[in-house]
Amino acid sequence: MDPHLALQLIIQGILLGGIYGLIALGLSLIFGVMGVINFAHGQMMVMAMYVSYWLFILLSLDPYLSLVGAAAAVFVLGYLIQATVVNRILDYPEAMQVLPLVAMGLILENMALLFWGPDHRSPQTALSLQTLWVGPVMIDVSRLIAFVLAIAITILIFIFLKKTNIGKCIRAAADNRTGAILVGIDVDRIYNTSFALGAATTGAAGVLLLPLMPLSPHMGHDFTLTAFIVVILGGMGNLIGALVGGLILGLAESVATLFLPATLKQVVSFSLLVVIMLFRPQGLFGGKK
């Protein structure tokens, strides 16, 4: 085995894993606050990617510069979905919560098909072909920027939840809904904000992925599954676990190409899921439940 190739794959896996962690962070936040699994998560990410792509085509605005605008658009989308759909199904049995969110995912996917068509799109940004050499290892500049921004956004989310009044209200509503209501917190508004923040987080991750892979309306399903794997690996509702789980999954998928064809990366992902479900179903950072 070529040690330089192995090191190259390890670095690529870590860089991709940071983005995986950001995708799963939003899903974990939504579940941690409301106990709802967002089955439209990947489709929300795809909508942010199309918004960024649209701005790139119409205004020549680089995806890294349109990140805030695309994330804000998905924030509004998430707020509306929570206010109109999710708040009405919070007290339903878990099996009945699944279908409305699956339906929302299908609606978003078909909206993308309606507006942008089924063709794959791959924008060529100014940094698409730029590389950075560190000794014998080549680092894709787009991946490096995406990783740095993903970690920065993750840190900002942690600071927001720990230090701001809205963040403290979100944590209070997640810990004890009844207690939060008794101390005067508008729980419905906090739930709307939490869902929207989770959607914006995955939207930002989608924009960071835009320069790295072709865009298609149908790619949301794969990233929803990826987010589920990462969240289960790290621990449902644990934000630090989402980041660590993303790094582990990205590293596992990348290093596995030393032994398996790249097309079999989902075999690695789901094998990892099966192992964690068998031996530590609460996840690496989950509690005893």
Report on the architecture of this protein.
The chain is mainly α and 289 residues long. 73% of the residues lie in helices and 3% in strands. The protein has eleven helices and two strands, in the order ααααββααααααα. A two-stranded antiparallel ribbon has the order 1-2. Strand 1 and strand 2 (137-140) form a beta hairpin. The longest helix is centred in the first third of the chain and has 32 residues, at 3-34. The mean pLDDT is 88.
Helix content: over 70%
Rounded to an integer in angstroms, the radius of gyration calculated over CA atoms is 19 Å
Shape annotation = globular
Fraction of residues in β-strands:
under 5%
Largest sheet: 2 strands, antiparallel
Determine the number of helices (DSSP H or I, runs of at least 4 residues): 11
Key attributes of the depicted protein:
mainly alpha, globular
